[in-house]
Amino acid sequence: MSCQRTWAQRLAVIVPVRNEASIVEPALARLQALRAAGVELLVVDGDSRDGSAERAAPLADRVLRTPAGRALQMNAGAAASTRPLLLFLHVDTELPQAALPALLAALDGGFDWGRFDVAIEPATPLLRLVATLMNLRSRASAICTGDQALFMRREAFDAVGGFPPQPLMEDIEITRRLRRRGRPACLRLRVRTSARRWLRHGVLRTVLLMWWLRLRYALGAEPAALARAYREAR
Fold first, then answer.
1. CA-to-CA distance for 43 and 45, rounded, in angstroms?
2. Least C-beta-crowded within 10 Å: which of 93, 95, 139, 187?
3. DSSP string over the chain
4. Residue 103's CB: how many other CB atoms inside 10 A?
5. 102 versus 233: which is more confidently predicted?
6. What is the pLDDT of residues 114-168, one digit of tens each?
7. Rounded to whole angstroms, how far apart are CA atoms 160 and 2?
8. pLDDT digits (tens, 9 = 90+) for 27-83
9. Domains of the chain
10. CA-CA distance, 43 to 69, in Å (whole number)?
């Protein structure tokens, strides 16, 4: 236990939230065992209007407040910590039980960065296919998404300038930059992420929209224009 605690004290978990009062407390409650082991838990609230920050405060080491914007929030969390290892976790994504030793082993084993496989829950046949394709695509391309719980060494994070200050595709862009330093550790342990954004607007519609936006981004479209298109489509 003391050895695990020493390892855990190297890691900060950064959770960006915005208007997530309905789920932030159970999400952070699941992370209390990591806090007890020595992990630093930082919540970065992006101008919530529903009391998310107040609900998070008893369950985090620190709650920071920033303007809205996931990239801005995650960068602020990283800047507020002195830990040498960083894990960026969406509030609706749940880590597997063995996440901590697995990511520490990967980063100590020579990788600068990595991600987990993902499962989308509640699962449907189509969502299981979506998750499988996400995992295969990122393993082949080394381009990963925030749903897969990105983790990295601070020196790698700093070397690529952190998350780019853009309103969409910040996860795609930082992994493109990290890929130049080396391929990611693609852990087969699965994080479980909520299906809510797929179910809210329809699974197929959401998948096709994201593919279209990513294609446009790859072809050089401005993130601000893509963010507007994303909001309009939703």
1. 6
2. 139
3. -HHHHHHHTTEEEEEEESS-TTTHHHHHHTTHHHHHHT-EEEEEEES-SSSHHHHHGGGSSEEEEE-S-HHHHHHHHHHH---SEEEE--TTEE--TTHHHHHHHHHHTT-SEEEEEEEEES--HHHHHHHHHHHHHHHHH----GGG--EEEHHHHHHTTSS-S-SS-HHHHHHHHHHTT---EEEEEEEEEE-HHHHHH-HHHHHHHHHHHHHHHHTT--HHHHHHHHHHH-
4. 25
5. 102
6. 999 999 999 899 999 999 999 999 999 999 999 999 999 999 999 999 999 999 9
7. 33
8. 999 999 999 999 999 999 999 999 999 999 999 999 999 999 999 999 999 999 999
9. 2-195 (3.90.550.10)
10. 14
Tell me the residue length of the chain: 234
